[in-house]
Amino acid sequence: MNADVLNSLHRERAGFSLVELIVVIAITGVIAAIIGVFILRPVQGYNALVRRAELVDEAESALRRMQRDIRAALPNSVRIRTPGGNVGDATCPTNNAVCVIEILHAVDGGRYRAGPVGDQLLFDGADTAFDVIGTLVNASAITPASNWLVVNNQTATGAQFNAYNCPAVGSTHNCVRMTAAGTTLGSTPPHIAMANAFSPTSPSLASPRQRFFVVDMPITYLCNTTTGTLDRYDGYTITVNHASIDTAAELAAVGGVARRVADLISGCRFTYLSGTSARAGLVTLELTIRDPNVNGQAEQVRMLHQVHVYNVP
Fold first, then answer.
1. Rounded to an integer, what distance in angstroms lies between the CA atom of residue 286 and that of residue 273?
2. Most buried among 82, 138, 237, 306, using CB within 10 Å?
């Protein structure tokens, strides 16, 4: 084989030169930079959209959880407070670090017998049992030994017609402890027995629509923008003085069990309009959730729910 053929084969197997490699790398870098300019923004936008959706979902879930409890509230038992505020406040201002909303949770209710047939409920200071008209919707959830029977609750403050007075004495103006002995919820008609009789008062305790409610516990939602948390408290003692249970420490002292509902809370505002006997009350719940670490900048959502409360006792 001659020298020219050998040189030709050598050149074919030599590969790329260093200059060619550098040119290819440079061109590839330019192309990647151009592509990156067009891809980076959509990717960042997608990540921000995903995080906003997560924040919306967290706020929506928290508000719907609050909504479910408020809809099950005993009529006229909603009360709102800011620590250090006035008893009976109807609004938690947005610039306040802590907002508290409390209700008495009604597990069931119905109509008591007041006619001449069957066991009537008499408000004479002696009657301790009565028949229910119809059936109970949620009888399996009632615990007679620990639940309270409430009739004609009209307010969340004051001494009369206020179910928050329940634990004060064995029987208060409109609230009496139920008892397991004599209570037959599964019978026809259901029969309810009380540990004490209703104390006679003037005006009469009787509900204008013969309604009664079974209360199992109070529930508090405590929003703290300093810690960025919204917590739900239950399992604690019914307390007439709202000012004594408007902080996390005070709720824990009376047996309250905290459950986290939402994080990253940067603002909350609760408002309550009690309505009238002809118009439902209205609770307005407003939450702001802020995440400071979305693509190096803050992302924030603000959600508002309004809940109707049927306050006719």
1. 15
2. 82
CA distance 288 to 99: 13
Query: For residue 298, what pLDDT is reported?
Result: 79
Give the Cα-Cα-Cα angle 102, 104, 107 (nearest 5 degrees).
140
- Evaluate if pTM is beyond 0.90: no
User: How far separated are the first and last CA of the chain, in Å rounded?
Assistant: 113
Q: What whole-number distance in Å separates Cα of residue 224 and Cα of residue 214?
A: 31
Do residues 156 and 162 touch, judged by C-beta distance below 8 A?
yes
Tokens 């004495």 belong to residue: 169
Backbone angles phi, psi at 29, to 5 degrees: -65, -40
> Does residue 311 carry a pLDDT above 60?
yes
Task: Give the three-state DSSP class for 299.
Answer: strand
Which candidate, 288, 215, 298, places its Cα nearest to that of 63? 288
Rounded CA gap, 97 and 130, in Å? 47
Tokens read off for 273: 């309009």
The two structure tokens encoding residue 121: 């409920």
Summarize pLDDT for 207-220 with one digit per residue, the tens.
888 999 999 999 99
Structure tokens at 5: 């053929």
